[in-house]
Design goal:
Length: 83
């Protein structure tokens, strides 16, 4: 059995949230604490958030990494202002 299969089998009621690490500890938000019993065993998957990408707006990201679409062409300045 793969790790993903074992994980899916164990995760009946998953709880997902973002948290900051403070002094090596991950704090569980109050709204989820009632779903977890004190001393219970949990599975923790850490996915660090890239601070640079977190603060950039979608339009800024698209400007830096434009998406190419087949069959589409770039409009000239005049064509853009005609519309």
């Amino acid at each position: 059995m793969t790790f993903r299969e074992k994980l899916a089998e164990k995760m009946k009621n998953p709880v997902e949230f973002e948290a900051k690490i403070k002094q090596g500890m991950i704090y569980i938000p109050e709204e989820y604490k009632n779903k977890l019993e004190d001393g219970s065993q949990v599975i923790v998957i850490i996915n660090p958030v890239d601070k640079e990408n977190q603060t950039k707006r979608l339009m800024d990201k698209l400007a830096e990494n434009p998406i190419s679409v087949k069959g589409e062409r770039k409009l000239t300045r005049e064509e853009i202002h005609e519309r």
